[in-house]
Amino acid sequence: MKKEEIINLINNPEITLNHSNLPEEHHNIITAGRQYKKFMEALGIDLKDPNSKDTPYRVAKMFVTERRSFKEEPPELTLFPNTKKYDEYVVVKNIPYYSCCSHHHVVFYGQAYIAYHPDKQVLGISKFARVVQHFAAKPQIQEEMTQEIIEYLWKNIEPKGLMVVVTGKHMCMVSRGAKAEGSVTTTSAIKGEDNGFDKKEALTLFRNDLKL
Ligand SMILES: [Zn+2]
Fold first, then answer.
1. Global confidence as pTM
2. I need a surface site. Which of 17, 37, 72, 118 has the fewest CB within 10 A?
3. How far is the CA of 173 from the centre of ligand 1 (A)?
4. β partners of residue 92
């Protein structure tokens, strides 16, 4: 369906949507767009303003297409046998992500740092970025995102140990409320300490790189 047709359906809520021949993505953009239009009207925003007239469409599309990972399966992870018995930590640093806090629906962003101690298999390193970006996409809080990343990697890689550290700059804290410009939130999760995975060693491998 063309963008103009979707916008037309947002602007004409009396037209009943035919669920069966409408892709789910378009259906969701139209229904969310209709509601966002009401939200803007409630705030007194002039929807005839050329800059605002298609905003219900743009906002709905952003939430449906970019922040929709809660409806998508996490990326499939390609694992390789650890044939050479690599027995040190693997560290992937500075993985950028963008997310949106579920409390305010305002952007937060930062970087993820992952260290793991492989056992029988290793993961292709680009997949770490895919996993982080998948779990980052939806509206959520940083603590949940950190936990989801570690649970998914732990279950799939089955390493001896694993640590995930996430830094986040929360626009809801910077641009409103506390207006705490410069504040950074760090969250972390660890697994495998019972197997001898050493948090201190993992941290020294990326402590100096921790940043936004
Ligand atoms: Zn927030």
1. 0.90
2. 72
3. 7
4. 114
Rounded to the nearest angstrom, the distance between the alpha carbon of 94 and the centre of ligand 1 is 23
DSSP count for the chain of H helices, then E strands:
7, 7
CA of 58 to the centre of ligand 1 (A): 21
* Beta-carbon neighbours within 5 Å of ion ligand 1: 101, 103-104, 172
Domains and CATH numbers, the chain: 3-66 (1.10.286.10), 79-209 (3.30.1130.10)
Partners of 98 in the β-ladder: 109
Greatest pairwise CA separation for the chain in angstroms? 65
Q: From 170, 164, 185, 152, select the one nearest 69 (Cα to Cα).
A: 152
Stretches in the chain below the pLDDT threshold 70:
69-70, 210-212
CA of 107 from ligand 1 middle (Å) equals: 8
Token pair of 62 as six digits = 């952003």
Q: Write the pLDDT tens digit of every residue in 13-64.
A: 999 998 778 888 999 999 999 999 999 999 999 999 999 999 999 999 999 9
23: Cβ–Cβ under 8 A, 6 or more apart, which residues?
A: 1
- Dig out the tokens for 176 from the structure: 């409103």
